[in-house]
Amino acid sequence: MSTAHHGGTGTPVDVNDPKLTRFDIVKEGLRRDDIEIVTYESQFQGANSKAEKRVVRNISLLFIISGLGALAFVVFYIIWPWRYELGNNRSDYFTPILGGTLGVSLFALGIGILAWAKKLLPHELSIQQRHGDPSSDEERLITGQTMMYVADELGVQRRPLLKGAIAIGVAPLGLAVGAPLVGGLIQNPHKDKRPIMYHTGFDKEANGGKPVRLTREDGSPIRPEDVSTGGQLTVYPGIPGGATNKYADSPTLLIHLRSDDAATARAAADSDKNGRNKGSMWGNYVAYSKICTHAGCPASLYEQQTNRLLCPCHQSQFLITDNAQPVFGPATRRLPMLPLSVDDEGFFVATSDFKDTVGPDFWERP
Amino acid sequence: MKRRKLDPAAATANFAKGVDDRFQAATPLRGLLNKVFPDHWSFLLGEIALFSFIVLLLSGVFLTLFFDPTMKEVAYHGSYLGLRGTEMSGAYESALNLSFEVRGGLFMRQMHHWAALLFMASIVVHMARVFFTGAFRKPREVNWVIGVVLFLLGFFAGFTGYSLPDDGLSGTGLRIASAIMLSLPVIGTWLSAAIFGGEYPGELIIGRFYIAHVLLIPGILLALISVHLGIVFKQKHTQWPGPLRTNENVVGERMFPRYAMKQGGFFMAVAGVIALMAGLFQINPIWLFGPYRAAEVSSASQPDWYVMFMDGLVRLMPNWQIYFGDYSLPPLFWPAVVGLGALFTLPMLYPWLEARKLKDTRTHHLLQRPRDNPERVGIGMMALTFFIIATISGGNDVIADKFHISLNAMTWAGRIGLLILPPIAYYMSVRICLGLQQHDREVLAHGVETGIIKRLPNGQFVEVHQPLGPVDDHGHPIPLEYAGWVVPKKMNKLGALAPAVKGFFYPVEKPADIPVSPAPISSGEREEISSKS
């Protein structure tokens, strides 16, 4: 192994020479790796200088702090009351104590190691040659020809039957691998006779033809006098599970407008271009889908003074007294209106499902 | 029987011999020990991302031991009184239990979340460093592309991760994600139905996000990070220009011991900072948000910071819907699908675009100071400005609320700013770069300003300049060539001041003697400078 290796410049030394120091042997290795140490000097004047001792003391201190921090972490982890309890008590400090002790421990260890490397180890400046040259043209040619030869060996060009057999016989295997993944995930969104995309829990047909009541989250029905003038209430379809996320498109905002606003709203609804909203109000009450037509967040911030409904996600604003048309923000489409009525027992019902499709817009929305 | 004496040195040597017999490890190992790394603080930004990723893996494994990704409705009976009796999904319940019933669970959850935020932040800063210094140029284009993909994967890892607890806030994010899928032309409803397993929200999405978040995405991340580092290792790190440094060498220090120790220490320090943040700063208090209900959301609903740019773009997009007969394209499509796609593909293509523009086919291992390529800095600042305005707009409701500004005004400011400010940022940064270049050239031509004003016999006042190199017969400096590296511009950089005394609280060495005159000047006439004048 005494012969020089790749790239090494300078004169090789005999590494078995007993006169060599360990550093000499290291330098021989560096020479073989094409590395030159330009400067390599201790940061201190003389071994065991006052400055060096001081640095060593500081680093030791950091390591001790690290150990104490870790120990404190374990001790507090075991003894500190950690279960959550209501009110201000000692368990509130459990997480901060864990973070503080572990953080200090890790940070002190990190700084200690960094200080060791930066302050105690000799300063060095080494130069390594990159050898980033691309392969020679000859090498490229050989590798290229080898690859071409591999193709020759397979002889697909000479054997057209094999080529056809691969295309026809094996290619379907790729489809077979992909089919379960795609096929398992694919769901036809239009497959139901009444695709749920276009219907909500207020759909009369799904309720055996009976109009669906408007209920609170707990399922209790609502009388007109339950909503004060200018007030609003989030309502859900009065069917089993109507307030759950199964009917995520159903939440609706029932608003009791002041009489002058109600007149404006009624005029707007009755003169609706496509006539869908005509006669959907009941008295001064109006109900609009709460699901924003932009990205589907609940448009839940109602400003009584301006009769505007704001969606907190992207700040689309809908004017309730004008068929809930969007007046600002990224939404294009008005909120769908729920046609209201009151049944024999005096509770609010929806005379039919929403006339427009609820929720965010999509390509084939009617 | 006589016990054989165990000689540790011989045993170790034997073991090493055995390893080398089998794996021929000695030569490559020596190469590894000796590998030279260039050193600069800005090369460590990517390390922060790597270290945060390690913390993410460790804390994430802990969380999986307790988290249950089910959407079955259960009633909560845990120790957090505010939600007792509330119907919620099993995922939300187990996330609450993880926070309240597992000793140290909240700490680990917060550590995971903070590490994720730091991971993404350090990727962004690291990418800025790589971009502005031209480190992406040949032969490193592929590694730049991998870096962009890593950001994209981190984006999806983060989104799937914070969706898992199924709390009020993350459910809203999911709802928006489904709306974004729906906005795709033709396939929108099919894609959403495929991913959610039918109508939104269905009962599958948390389980699907879970496997994506704990296996698929981290698996790809881990593989790509390995390739990323492998390429850095193979191609050797770039370095700044400077004394001794050329395009063919690496000037720095050997990997072992000093460089590796610095890496290890830095890892500990990063982990320590994450632990401190996890303990002291609350993040994502899911118990305050309640379970996800389709009808409930509060104002100030913000995603994690690295998703905010997208939310901001969605907020700023005007309500332009395009109709094709019975079909239509919602405005959500443009910022969320096209915008996100463009923000990732354009940076990926940039290395080739720039090389094409500059007709540059050379290999570059030396970095460029940002000022030396003003157009690149301009483009980068333009992109950053766009990103920052979009991110700020993602929180424009909070800004409007806290500073009592009209929300509509914030939206309009964002819309206008998004169009106007990036070009301004481009122009300003190009001008600043040119100005800095100019100043470098000035100093190289005339020398460093000394601050000494001299009056000439004719009454004229001139400032004395300290030449950086040789001077001609008239005492005028011979202009120096710019070397692509820092030009000293202050007298103390030339040794006009004594070096700083070592020691933090008290000096550990004697102050050096104050030099009588600054740096040695070769020959010829020169202005006499004294630090006492």
From TrEMBL, chain A:
Gene3D superfamilies, per the entry: Rieske [2Fe-2S] iron-sulphur domain
GO (cellular component) term, any one: plasma membrane
Annotated Basic and acidic residues bias: 214-226
Pfam families: QcrA_N, Rieske
Localization per Swiss-Prot or TrEMBL: Cell membrane
Matching InterPro entries: QcrA_N, Rieske_2Fe-2S, Rieske_2Fe-2S_sf, Rieske_Fe-S_prot
Domain Rieske: 283-349
Known role: Iron-sulfur subunit of the cytochrome bc1 complex, an essential component of the respiratory electron transport chain required for ATP synthesis. The bc1 complex catalyzes the oxidation of menaquinol and the reduction of cytochrome c in the respiratory chain. The bc1 complex operates through a Q-cycle mechanism that couples electron transfer to generation of the proton gradient that drives ATP synthesis.
Protein's UniProt name: Cytochrome bc1 complex Rieske iron-sulfur subunit
Record organism: Actinoplanes regularis
From TrEMBL, chain B:
Topology term for the membrane: Multi-pass membrane protein
Cellular component terms (Gene Ontology): plasma membrane
Domain of life: Bacteria
EC number: 7.1.1.8
InterPro entries named among the record's database cross-references: Cyt_b/b6_N (IPR005797), Cytb/b6-like_sf (IPR027387), Di-haem_cyt_TM (IPR016174)
Gene3D superfamilies named among the record's database cross-references: Cytochrome Bc1 Complex, Chain C
Listed GO MF terms: metal ion binding; oxidoreductase activity; quinol-cytochrome-c reductase activity
Residues of the Cytochrome b/b6 N-terminal region profile domain: 15-241
Pfam families in UniProt: Cytochrom_B_N_2
UniProt-annotated location(s): Cell membrane
Keywords recorded for this protein, A-Z: Cell membrane, Electron transport, Heme, Iron, Membrane, Metal-binding, Respiratory chain, Translocase, Transmembrane, Transmembrane helix, Transport
Listed GO biological process terms: respiratory electron transport chain
Catalyses which reaction(s): a quinol + 2 Fe(III)-[cytochrome c](out) = a quinone + 2 Fe(II)-[cytochrome c](out) + 2 H(+)(out)
Transmembrane intervals: 41-67, 113-132, 144-164, 176-197, 209-233, 264-283, 332-353, 374-392, 412-434
Cofactor(s) essential for the protein: heme
Protein name: Cytochrome bc1 complex cytochrome b subunit
Lineage, broadest ranks: Bacteria, Bacillati, Actinomycetota, Actinomycetes, Micromonosporales
